[in-house]
Amino acid sequence: MIHVIIIILLSVVMIVMAFVAIHHKNLQVAVIASGIISLFASVIYIFLAAPDVAITEASIGSVITVSIFFYVLNKIRHEDIKK
Amino acid sequence: MKILRSSALLIVVGFMAWMMFNLYVTYDSRTELNDVAAYYAEEGLSEVGAANLVTSIVVTYRGLDTLGEVTILFLTAAIIGLLLKTEKGTRTTPVRESSEFLMTGARILIPVITMIGVYIFINGHLSPGGGFQGGAILASTFILLLMSISNKKIGHRLLDYTEAISGLSFILIGVLGIILAAGFLDNKIFSLGTFGTLLSAGTIPIIYSLVGLKVGAELSNIILEFNQIQGDEDH
After folding, report:
1. CA distance A6 to chain B (A)
2. Are B207 and B58 in contact (CB under 8 A)?
3. A/B interface, count of CB pairs below 8 Å
């Protein structure tokens, strides 16, 4: 029962974060929100007894993707300043 | 014209919905595994000898798929390297110095996270995780390393050699499987060992370590490419 409650709470947070990721004006906040989705998804995978997938999701979804997005955002911002 | 286009879209969406609805209505959940899955679940233990059944499927039964995935990742890294190609040593302006907190934290955390990554891919046949997961964790260590020493230049050479050697050895072990055992990527080149120990399940620990090194090197290379284009001729 407690598992179901935790999973529902995590899912609600994920849906909210998805809306933030789409609609927020600040791109950095949007990228971090999408990283939080991956992090919570990995917790849900652990509850669903898929630790392999959880490790992948946590490391790729919430670390590597977010940092690549930040590298690209940083690059784009510098290009804008130059113009 | 606009109405025509919208109605065409509506028809396509409606058709898809109808198709999916039929699938949903006729779906009844299985009460037992299908033939292939049942075979893996029953024979996997005695044939492959890995405590983690997922690993025995990923590395041995579906080893060719794993080789394909690694190849796709290699292609991705190569294409990113091609598209983000910069002249040698373009970073003329120094990037802002990393903060003391980050540098000290990185000095403590990098060995620990590296150890977790290596543990995950060496123990891929015993515990959850494996080459891909361990490699991704190694690459996240690399991000921390890059952030903590933002001023130094890092060469590609070590990463390139790691990737090339581990990829080649992966294929060599696969070919050895044809010669010494039943087929490509068969893990029974040497004896299966005691179930549940580190040196069990034939070549699976070796293959997964190679996959882990290769994936780690590839992802690190991608991140290094993105890192190198920062601070190009700006400020």
Report:
1. 23
2. no
3. 51
Least CA distance to B232: which residue of chain A? A75
CB spacing of B137 vs A59 below 8 angstroms: yes
d(CA B52, CA B37): 15
* Residue B91 CB contacts under 8 Å (≥ 6 apart), including other chains: B153, B228, B230, B231, B232
What 3-state class would DSSP assign to B22? helix
- CA A53, B144, B120, B166 dihedral sign is positive
Global pTM value:
0.79
> pLDDT (tens digit, 9 = 90+) per residue, B88-121?
555 555 566 778 888 888 889 999 999 998 888 8
Give the residue extent of every domain in chain A.
Answer: 2-82
Q: Does B120 touch chain A (CB under 8 A)?
A: yes
- Taking alpha carbons only, the member of B169, B148, B164 closest to residue B217 is B164
Q: Which of B184, B211, B61, B185 is nearest to B124 (CA)?
A: B211
Interface of A with B (CB under 8 A): 51-52, 55-56, 59-60, 63-64, 67-68, 71-72, 74-75, 78, 81-82
How far is it, in rounded angstroms, from Cα B7 to Cα B5?
5
Residues of A with Cβ-Cβ distance to B229 under 8 angstroms: 71, 75
Q: pLDDT tens digits, residue range B42-97? A: 777 777 777 777 888 887 888 888 888 888 988 988 898 888 876 655 555 556 67
Q: Nearest C-alpha of chain A: how many angstroms from B126?
A: 12
Q: Report, in this order, helix, strand and coil percent for chain B, each rounded to 5.
A: 70, 0, 30
B230 to A52: CB separation less than 8 angstroms, yes or no: no
Q: What is the ipTM of this complex?
A: 0.81
